Amino acid sequence: MATSDIVKAIAFNADGLIPAIAQQHDSGEVLMVAWMNAESVAETLDTGQVCYWSRSRQTLWRKGESSGQTQRLVEMRLDCDADTLLLLVDQTGVACHTGRRNCFFRAVRNGELVTIAEVEIDPDELYGA
Amino acid sequence: MATSDIVKAIAFNADGLIPAIAQQHDSGEVLMVAWMNAESVAETLDTGQVCYWSRSRQTLWRKGESSGQTQRLVEMRLDCDADTLLLLVDQTGVACHTGRRNCFFRAVRNGELVTIAEVEIDPDELYGA
Fold first, then answer.
1. CA nearest to A71, candidates A88, A85, A57
2. Is the confidence at residue A31, as pLDDT, over 80?
3. Using CB atoms, which residue from B9, B32, B80 is nearest to A97?
4. Which of A38, B15, B45, B70 sits at 20 to 30 Å (Cα–Cα) from A68?
5. pLDDT-derived band of residue B119, with 50, 70 and 90 as boundaries?
6. How many helices (H) and strands (E) does chain A have?
7. What are residue A35's DSSP bridge partners?
8. How far apart are CA A121 and CA B89, in angstroms?
9. Which ipTM did the prediction report?
């Protein structure tokens, strides 16, 4: 089965995009959610390094290209409606642009929205001051 | 902090919706992704039972109302951009309408899209024949 056939099985939305969840393959930690288009899915499958589509910049977004915080693809999964991807990955360093390991660092606890994770890497170190 | 203040912190999309990942709180299994609007977020926080917004039916979708496969909310988390929710839940039975525990039962392995999970409950049992 060629990569193009796998891409054809995906139900991209009207903008040609699909949301992708990145999950650390061994711990089960949900790291982040971003979007992919057909080209980024194909590149991710072919290279084994996760590549998203940046909606704000309208370009391929090779995760970690500038920050070094790359994601190696362990397995790509597709849901029942083929409209969401689950990427089992091995995350180098931190997934979140805030310098936290994952993006889901705010939780509703006792009726308050609280920050539950510390910054591990100064964002200036990730992207330059 | 009132539920309405938490809802105000969420960056809903142009359609007033936000994607929500349901993850089994103890095992880390990613169960499904669905959408929520402000009303379903508020109901979920207030009742502790997960309620989505059905885009196809354009109604509140109280998960498990017809099938019995409910999701008890353990914790709601918000990502850095406030545009994705992570719901830590306790899933009764199966999350997927196909009768599988989770919706991500197709994986790309050795260049093929393969089914990696068995049906646990006949869908006819979930929704009536």
1. A88
2. yes
3. B80
4. A38
5. very high
6. 3, 8
7. A19, A53
8. 30
9. 0.96
The three-class DSSP label of residue B40 is helix
Place of tokens 């960056």: B11
pLDDT tens digit sequence for A72-125: 999 999 999 999 999 999 999 999 999 999 999 999 999 999 999 999 999 999
Spatial contact of A22 and A90, defined as CB atoms under 8 Å apart:
no
What's the residue count for chain B? 129
- Three-state DSSP at A37 gives coil
User: Are A103 and B79 in contact (CB < 8 Å)?
Assistant: yes
Sign of CA dihedral A107, A31, B111, A19: positive
Q: What is the C-alpha separation between B97 and B125, in angstroms, rounded?
A: 11
Q: For chain B, how many helices (H) and strands (E)?
A: 3, 8
Say yes or no: B106 contacts chain A, CB-CB below 8 A. Answer: yes
